Amino acid sequence: MIALANEPALFTGLVFLLGLAVGSFLNVVVHRLPRMLETEWQEQCAELRGEPGPAASRYNLSTPRSACPSCGHRITALENIPVLSWLGLRGRCSACGSRISARYPLVELLTATLSALIAWKFGFGMLTAGAILFVWTLIVLAFIDFDTTLLPDDLTLPLLWLGLLFNLFGVYTSLESAVIGAMAGYLTLWSIYWLFKLVTGKEGMGYGDFKLLAAIGAWLGWEMLPVTILLSAAVGAAVGIAMVVFIKHDRQVPIPFGPYLAGGGVVALFYGAPITRAYLGSF
Predict the structure, then answer these.
(1) pTM, to two decimals
(2) How many other CB atoms are there within 10 angstroms of residue 194's CB atom?
(3) Of 66, 135, 226, 280, whose CB has the highest number of CB atoms within 10 Å?
(4) CA 257, CA 266: separation in Å to the nearest integer?
């Protein structure tokens, strides 16, 4: 432990390798958690209707083993090495040659890079441990929302409570700021949601967005909420306009806001304080 604390380069490198391994697991969570929740919802609906639920099958984050969706080939240990296996296989299944999405190694590299940056910035200790958990969860939420337009309570609510727990000891901000951040984060988007609905008669975002911003506020404090909201709104608007103009995205199809909130939260974690000081200093 003392060696890791005294050798930032070694610590950062080890965290990078850990991030690669965890990134591989995060790919599994992104793929399987929505399906697990859908099965659970179907079982609950069947129970309310007094009907037998769907046939029980073991499907969770560990069972069954990962397999090719095209041919069912079980992924071996050598084919599951983060990034390297995808490169060695040239992005294709070893059994049937079906293409393997480049998103898998990209998620692994994103997780590893952000984890290493956190380790380098905060050093060995609680700051890094908490920030890494925070960012890992944001990565999963961003990709699940991108795929399904869902931000599961199974992730957003534990993330919120975990942020309050860390700040019970003042790790990132005071407990007072964290509690206010959680309340203000939720109520800010809740108010925007209802104002937009009253004016247009449409729903502009989902309740998961409220909970995600509340979780970010619980981790970083209410002072970081303006930075997070402005960054996510600006990037989200730019991407949305580009999608409509350049790829003719149907305006009736919602664009998930969670990935932009998550990105704003990551930027606020690294640079929120200097951005806020610079913004206030401009006045």
Answers:
(1) 0.92
(2) 12
(3) 135
(4) 15
